[in-house]
Specification:
The complex is a heterooctamer, with two copies of chain A, two copies of chain B, two copies of chain C and two copies of chain D. By secondary structure, chain A is of the alpha/beta class. In chain A, 37% of the residues lie in helices and 21% in strands. Chain A has a single domain, classed as Pyruvate-ferredoxin oxidoreductase, PFOR, domain III (Pyruvate-ferredoxin Oxidoreductase, domain 3, 3-Layer(aba) Sandwich), CATH 3.40.920. In chain C, the strands form two sheets. Chain C has a two-stranded antiparallel ribbon with strand order 1-4. The chains are: A alpha/beta, B alpha/beta, C alpha+beta, D alpha/beta. Bound molecules: thiamine diphosphate (2 copies), iron/sulfur cluster (SF4) (6 copies) and magnesium ion (2 copies). One thiamine diphosphate sits at the interface of chains F and D.
């Protein structure tokens, strides 16, 4: 079955690369994948989002009308996408800057205090990797093992940051597993 | 208590959508204040370019036209010739005016068209995400000059100097908004460029050295320093024509 | 007493005013974020001279400067 | 009394009489007499004539002038019209009224300067980007060109749309005796409330803008344009029929070729062949319905589109006829004009 | 292993691998990653990258480079492509091989930057002047775009024709896992004897020229071009059929919309509605014959053209189907992408 | 007996189709002779403009391209970048280079493209029958300035002076062919402009003041006098850049 | 019946204005008329020609494939158009610069020494008017009387030359009448 | 003896050579017309110095100049 994910937040939160890491992970698990960003001048200082579709067979539509999963990294994104999530779908909420509770009870919700966890992992910039961990822990969308490849690929030019990213991933992963 | 400074009434209530610290905003203010001071309210047609300032049609409190990339001087010619009593101004970026629109600005200037051009030189294509502009400095890295602007990419074009060789223009100046003193000078130049139009003196253009913190990958304050320390070396400030 | 008012929703937290106030009377808030998510500038003193430099440099016309009228 | 006038000059004079007070253009054969005429005439009527630095510039001068409320036009020929495509798309998007004359010459490339009809697709399908249309006329005599020009400015204003006159070298260069319409009193032309005449402030500000960054807004614009085009199809279709009532072979031709085809109809009738001519006067909106009706007549056996092109309008004929009858094509391209004899011989050969 | 690549970058890399060693372009969203990629990549392979001063200039740089024998390409998006129309007409007239990518955005005018298919007419009917055509592809996945790009330069050389890739923002911005083709050894590319490589003197002089002042010569050129287009129709038509064998309702869609329509086919089949998809891969030459055959099947009841436009390709569908079955249209324009659900709902509603 | 002067072998046998006495022909000779002298035979790609010289593709004895109106510098850029070892030249009229093609010439010059441009300034649109050119003199009557070029039609553009403000060009000169002495100077300038290219010095352009007896409504000899007495006043001869 | 005339010669011979005068004459006789020049750069120093069609009813085709009448003012024009003239048609030959005899015997030919006659009329430039006179005298295509109007209209701004033009016309007219 | 040869069919009778020959050795023919109808230039003397000025100024490359070789 196809798995569709929308990731959304502010420009600087690593939204697009979070989506790309999901895509890489899927490829490593021999799945088909598409990644589609929002683009254009509205990104300027504003919000950013991308859509990832993972499937066993070639992907027909890279455009997601109602995702299986929403990763909301800030409040405007939450407002914009929450009601499009499929019934029974999954919503990951970046609790560090979203104070409100999710106003739907037909979806599965995990609140993640990404900033604190990232700080604990040793690098505030790993907040998006924390979310990746949660997603993988919760859904097993790709195997935990392939994360090393993924992070290695994405940070090929900055090997120094790899360890703390893996820590951050693992911390998120645990949360995901706990919420299965 | 009296108000010493507030947002000009020649700007609308719509918040500007430029990036934080982008000096497009400062120049907007200067133009708006000038229009207010010369009592042009209700008598102005402005032209928004294609570039970050395309949305200027939302910001200036006057009739506005948004025109194709680079063609503002042609559009302004059409407007002014048919409405000689109105104050007409074009607001253009460096890619707009000095690349795709080179022919249009040169010929409007040569004809001595009686309108005012405000030219924002930020040495980059802001709107499209930081490509090389005709005014990009030698060595400057952009998304299409990833190794720094080099020999095969040519040298920055100095549009103001170029137009100064023509008989048409009445006033040509280059200013900067990198600090309060320069902002004051910029204001004066812009005002003169509009007053010239009121007095039927013909074509006036003010080039404003401006920042693009986003695509220069600098903080707004660093960007202002870059204008002061680097850009003005290549683009000397001053009045290039006044007659 | 002269002072400035910063329109919280117009401010984009660029810190240009902070850098140019000759008396360094403005600072960036470390807690206050506006609806667009920008950390905003705030006035931190009552010794403003209403020189309007901050306002002149503010790209977003977020600053209004008021001066105490001379008696 | 009638006056003898060159097509290009008659068109320019008709524009002046229709209240056109601004012309922006660039020289190109075979339409040079239009800007040349305006350069003499505009000063007499207090109008504006600017020889632009290029066709790109000219069309954007038209944009500015039209946006600020003027009755304005430009003219060019094929390569020059290609350069105007971005501008035309903008004008359609901003819904600005103006008139554009294309005295078509042979193409592609620099091609030749003799008459052709190979810019039909560009004119009626939209050579620029996006979904837009112009109101396109293909007059076949100088008198018709004059009458259409005279009306064109009103139509343009009414629909806020560019009107294109698709002529060719023959129409531009031929002299015929014509009757010129009266000079419009420009005071009587309705004021355009939407135009940026400079008086706007606050609520009354007017904005001419084609950027629609929000997809819902762009969708709305396109739907509004589509409605406009529907309305054109309903109200502005024009065509002429000549001996089609009982015709077995029906020619479809416009412009210069149509008058030549008319000769051929007569000759064929004399030879006992029942020919007729359907002449679209508006090329967009194309007169599809009347053509469809003709195709349903028992008498009509087949259609023959005749063009100075490799076959462009013929597609619109086929779309209209929708398989009811065969639609053939006869064309020449390059500047060698089709003669009545060419058509007659073709028909007889194909019979 | 497959690599994950953005459509725009994959297209650029495929071009390099196909032997393209010259790129001339100008920034415009949503295709900026193409020039940006070349600006890094060309120095690595000893190729040429020039950011031109405008699209007009870029297409004429392509003209010069192609005329002197280079494998060369340019890319842009809608308004920029409109500016290239004169140049494209020249390139077709001079019969120069090159590749042009149009990542279509919403229009008309400045419009929006989101995906659209509203430049179809411009691409396939000829937005410039004169009778000319390009070979036009509408790939629907990044892999297909890569494969087509790789072949495009060979086709361009073979037919001495510009090849256009008609994509949209989605195709340019999407990342998909792809297999890249091998790097062509540019030494193996056949030499172009007709190209002005500078060695010509006297008898061996080569002239790239589009001026054909003598009508007989221009006529000859146009006839030669027409033959070329016939040959394209014979040899280069490409399309895909999906569950059409027994389909009652047949969607016709290309590019991004086609993959979305495919989803809709499956959903409808699940609901017991016999849907199918006909996907033109070449937009010019349009796969008219296979469509005609489908329209003659007893099983097919109607056709539905689906486009991100107000209805452009639908005309080619109608021309192909020629009245045999009804042809409906469903479209959106403005950047709001059609979803599979939109299509499913439309079909169920119309039933 | 020895031949002192004969038609250059870098011209074909095709008779020129310019009007009687038109100096396009003289400039053709100078270019051809230069190509011969620098031994460029078999190594040249020339570009014909849109204008009276469009037929130049028939006249120069080398590979030739004919390109869209005004775009010769873009075309030359495409050719030269892909064929850096070949001698590439563009031959353009004033309407072609200084009106519709303004952007192209400015940017080729700014990039310092390594080719040679020969610019024929005859102050008119010859090919299309005598319309106003960007270089038409003030007061000069043309078919689109029937009362003489006036205020609303702007002042003549001095392209060579304009390009001299750029860093890109290596050699810029204005010459005339109004008499034997000037023809000799013109030849020298053209030769230098080609030699620069051979030496990889970058962009070189020679502007040649030329006649259009037909559209000036003068005899060829009167026309040469007009160049000497009137045109050179507005367009001073000389070298504007040489580095 | 339609009357179609091709007039051809060198650029400076007044070819186009000769055609226009025929057209004016036709209008003065209340006929329909079209005048179509050749145009473009080939006119440069080269040949020039125009086609005039006169008719009782609106003119369908202004393009003439085979004219009723050819006025050949120079040799190249003669070569180019002679064989397109209708059988039984009329050919007026400018004998002053065409030495050859017309090589067809199925057409009516009048040789006119235009230069000498024009000189006699007092103005070498009236050679084309001489031909106009011959045409009218021979064919009565419009009435002799309307010529004053026509010449008056065409030379409105140069009244001085009107008399010699009328003289030239009349001299040509006599030749035309003689050759009826 | 030096002299010039004028290619009759290339000459367009512009008279530029006539005007510039320092010795005024060339004149326009009053009877000779070429195939294109142009009255052509002709050499009218044997005192040509082979200075080549006429040829240099001839726009149509119609003139070839030959010089008697020095013995
Ligand atoms: C014909 C055309 N070409 C390209 C573009 C894309 N485009 C939009 S803005 C821009 C350049 C903007 O740069 P500049 O003029 O310097 O303004 P800035 O954004 O830096 O203020 C470009 C190339 C376009 N919209 N239209
Ligand atoms: C796009 C385009 N616009 C206009 C023309 C028509 N045109 C042909 S030549 C020419 C101008 C020629 O003038 P110039 O460049 O000065 O050359 P000259 O004939 O004087 O040597 C023009 C406008 C054209 N062919 N293409
Ligand atoms: S991209 Fe640059 S120029 Fe544009 S708004 Fe942002 S900072 Fe300003
Ligand atoms: S008005 Fe002057 S003193 Fe007051 S805050 Fe602003 S810059 Fe500082
Ligand atoms: S300059 Fe203006 S926008 Fe920037 S921080 Fe200060 S108040 Fe805010
Ligand atoms: S029209 Fe003028 S420029 Fe052209 S060939 Fe004749 S004289 Fe020369
Ligand atoms: S070569 Fe010199 S002297 Fe002899 S004819 Fe020519 S100009 Fe006169
Ligand atoms: S200069 Fe040349 S073309 Fe002119 S008259 Fe003399 S020989 Fe003939
Ligand atoms: Mg910029
Ligand atoms: Mg010229």
């Amino acid at each position: 079955m196809d798995k569709s994910i929308i990731i959304a937040g502010f420009g600087g939160q690593g939204i697009l690369s979070l989506g790309q890491m999901i895509a890489y992970g899927a490829i490593h698990s021999n799945k088909e994948v598409s990644w589609l960003p929002s683009y254009g001048p509205e990104m300027r200082g504003g919000t950013s989002n991308c859509s990832v579709v993972i499937s066993e067979k070639p992907i027909a539509s890279p455009v997601i009308s109602s995702p299986d999963c929403l990763i909301a990294m800030n409040k405007p994104s939450m407002t914009k996408f929450l009601y499009s999530v499929k019934k029974g779908g999954l919503v990951l909420v970046n609790q560090s800057i979203i104070n409100d509770e999710v106003a739907r009870d037909d979806v599965d919700v995990i609140y993640v205090d990404t900033s604190n966890i990232a700080e604990e992992a040793g690098n505030l910039k790993t907040a998006n990797i924390v979310m990746l961990g949660v997603l993988v822990g919760k859904t097993n969308i790709f195997t935990k093992e392939s994360i090393e490849n993924v992070i290695g690929e994405v940070f090929a030019t900055k090997p120094k940051v790899i360890p703390c990213n893996i820590t951050a991933f693992n911390m998120g992963y645990e949360i995901g597993v706990k919420n299965r | 208590m009296s108000v010493v400074y507030k947002k000009s009434k020649m700007l609308t209530n719509v918040p500007l959508n430029y990036c934080p610290g982008c000096t497009h905003g400062i120049v907007h203010k200067l133009v708006a204040e000038t229009l207010e001071e010369i009592n042009a309210e209700g008598n102005v047609i402005g032209i928004a370019p294609v570039g970050c300032a395309v949305f200027a049609y939302d910001f200036f409190n006057c009739d506005m036209q948004q025109v194709a990339h680079g063609r503002a001087p042609a559009c302004a010619t059409g407007i002014k010739r048919c409405n000689p009593d109105k104050i007409v101004f074009a607001y253009q970026g460096d890619g707009d005016i000095a690349s795709i629109g080179t022919a249009e600005i040169v010929h409007a200037a040569a004809r001595g068209e009686n309108f005012t051009v405000v030219f924002i030189n930020n040495a980059i294509y802001g709107m499209t995400g930081g490509q090389m502009a005709p005014t990009t400095l030698v060595g400057q890295k952009t998304t299409t000059s990833p190794f720094g602007r080099g020999k095969m990419q040519g040298n920055p074009i100095k549009l103001t100097e170029m137009l100064a060789t023509l008989d048409g223009p009445s006033y040509l100046a280059r200013v900067s908004v990198s600090d309060p003193a320069n902002v004051r000078k910029a204001k004066k130049a812009i005002k003169k460029a509009f007053e010239n139009q009121v007095n039927g003196k013909g074509f006036s253009m003010v080039e404003v050295l401006s920042t693009c913190p986003t695509n220069w990958h600098m903080t707004p304050v660093q960007a202002l320093d870059f204008v002061k320390n680097e850009m003005t070396k290549v683009f000397p400030l001053g009045v290039y024509k006044d007659c | 007493m002269s002072t400035i008012y910063i329109d919280k929703e117009l401010c984009k937290g660029c810190a240009v005013c902070v850098s140019f106030c000759p008396l360094k009377l403005i600072n960036m808030s470390d807690h206050d974020v506006n609806a667009s998510g920008y950390a905003i500038a705030e006035m931190n003193s009552d010794s403003c001279t209403a020189c309007a430099i901050c306002a002149m440099m503010c790209p977003d016309s977020a600053i209004t400067v008021v001066k105490e009228d001379k008696k | 009394m009638k006056v003898l006038m060159k097509g290009n000059e008659a068109i320019a004079e008709a524009a002046v009489r229709a209240g056109c007070r601004a012309f922006f253009g660039y020289p190109i054969t075979p339409q040079n007499e239009i800007p040349e005429y305006f350069s003499r005439r505009m000063p007499e009527v207090g109008g504006v004539f600017v020889q632009a630095e290029s066709e790109v510039s000219a069309i954007n001068m038209v944009y500015g002038a039209a946006g600020s409320g003027a009755r304005v036009m430009t003219s060019s020929s094929s390569p020059g019209i290609s350069l105007k495509q971005e501008g035309i798309s903008y004008i359609c998007a901003a819904e600005l009224p103006c008139v554009i004359v294309n005295m078509v010459r042979g193409g592609p490339g620099l091609g030749g300067i003799l008459p052709a009809q190979s810019d039909y697709f560009q004119a009626v399908k939209g050579g620029g980007h996006g979904d837009y249309r112009m109101l396109v006329y293909g007059p076949s005599t100088v008198q018709e060109a004059v009458d259409i020009m005279y009306e064109a400015f009103d139509k343009a204003d009414k629909y806020r749309i560019p009107v294109m006159i698709l002529g060719d070298g023959v129409l531009g260069q031929i002299m015929e005796a014509i009757e010129l319409p009266e000079m419009v009193d420009i005071q009587t032309i309705p004021k355009k409330e939407w135009a940026t005449d400079g008086t706007g402030v606050g609520e009354s500000r007017r904005v001419i803008n084609t950027l629609k960054i929000k997809p819902e807004v762009l969708e709305e614009v396109n739907n509004r344009l589509a409605d406009k085009y529907k309305s054109l199809s309903k109200h502005e279709v024009r065509y002429e029929q000549y001996r089609t009532e009982d015709a077995e072979i029906i020619f479809v031709a416009y412009g210069t070729v149509a008058r030549i085809s008319k000769s051929a109809v007569d000759t064929l009738r004399d030879k006992g062949i029942k020919a007729g001519l359907f002449r679209p006067i508006t090329l967009y909106p194309f007169p599809s319905d009347p053509l469809l009706s003709l195709s349903k007549l028992r008498s009509s056996k087949k259609f023959l589109a005749i063009e100075l092109s490799m076959g462009q309008m013929v597609e619109d004929v086929r779309l209209a006829v929708n398989g009811n009858k065969p639609v053939d094509f006869f064309g020449k391209v390059g500047g060698i004009i089709i003669t009545p004899d060419d058509i007659v011989n073709y028909v007889i050969k194909e019979k």
